[in-house]
Design goal:
alpha+beta; 7-stranded mixed beta sheet; Glutaredoxin; globular; 24% strand; 9 strands
Length: 175
């Protein structure tokens, strides 16, 4: 169980993010077009899994737009934004913000993602949705970087994410 804060007040998740070097748990999430996908759908690209409570909050929306801007020159990277939002709302958000590089994924049909990634909030006013976190995966879905944002209202450490992306080769021994 990890502790994060919401406006300075402690709340707890069900576990911890996957550790660097470990395989990322697979998932079944739903796209804005109501298709179910898993890690396999994103091929052999590196993946930045950005976990947010809801795109209908200022920090989640702003940071998602920042990731869109940051990866325009990174065709080797898939940005997967995961939240408890309904696919319809996620689709409207992407259309309104002209987001083309991020893939929004909903836990609508399966909450196991939040449990498996250790980000399911267990108490407090946000109980039942996710804490904010980032998991960077190599081409073999091994964790290259993981950050559970300590204050839910804060943005992730963009510099650390892109430093990990630039500094680390894939972790697979076959690379």
């Amino acid at each position: 169980m990890a502790e994060v804060k919401l406006k300075g007040n402690p709340i707890h998740t069900n576990g911890d993010l996957p550790h660097v070097g470990s395989p990322a748990p697979d998932f079944k999430l739903t796209t804005k077009d109501l298709e179910d996908v898993s890690l396999a759908n994103f091929g052999d690209k590196r993946k930045l899994v950005y976990i947010v409570p809801s795109l209908d909050t200022p920090v989640c929306a702003e940071s998602t737009k920042k990731f869109e801007d940051m990866v325009k020159q990174r065709p080797d990277l898939e940005i997967l934004v995961v939240s408890a939002d309904l696919p319809f709302a996620m689709g409207r958000f992407c259309a309104a913000e002209n987001l083309e590089r991020v893939t929004v994924l909903s836990m609508m049909r399966d909450r196991n993602f939040a449990k498996d990634y250790g980000v399911l909030i267990q108490d407090g006013p946000l109980e039942g949705i996710t804490a904010r976190g980032v998991v960077l995966l190599d081409t073999d879905n091994l964790v290259m970087h993981a950050e559970l944002v300590s204050e839910i209202g804060d943005e992730p450490d963009y510099d650390a994410i892109f430093k990990a992306l630039d500094d680390r080769a894939d972790l697979s021994p076959t690379q």
